[in-house]
Design goal:
The chain has two helices and two strands; from the N terminus they run αββα. By secondary structure, the chain is of the alpha+beta class. It has a domain of about 50 residues.
Length: about 80
C-alpha cells in the first residue's frame, strides 16, 4: 500500500516539460525532458554559483604582482 501511495504522489507532482526537434538537411535531432520545480531550482543554483565563482578567478588571474614579486627567470611582458 505504501508503494502505491508514493507512486500516486510522484505522479501528482507538477512537472515542467521541454521538447526540442531540429532538422538540418537530412540530419535530425529530437529530445524530450521533464523536470520538477525542485530540479529547476537546483540547476538555477548551480548556474548562479558557477557565474559567481568566475569573478574571483578572473580577478586573481589579471591582477598585477607587487614590485619584486616576480619569480626569478620570468620577465614581464605586455602583448
Amino acid at each position: 500500500m505504501l508503494e502505491a501511495d508514493e507512486a500516486d504522489r510522484r505522479d501528482s507532482v507538477r512537472r515542467n516539460v521541454a521538447s526540442l526537434r531540429m532538422q538540418i538537411g537530412q540530419a535530425s535531432f529530437e529530445t524530450h525532458t521533464e523536470m520538477t520545480p525542485q530540479g529547476l531550482l537546483a540547476i538555477g543554483g548551480m548556474v548562479s554559483l558557477i557565474l559567481l565563482s568566475v569573478v574571483p578567478i578572473i580577478w586573481v588571474s589579471t591582477r598585477k604582482l607587487p614590485h619584486g614579486a616576480m619569480p626569478r627567470g620570468m620577465r614581464r611582458s605586455r602583448l
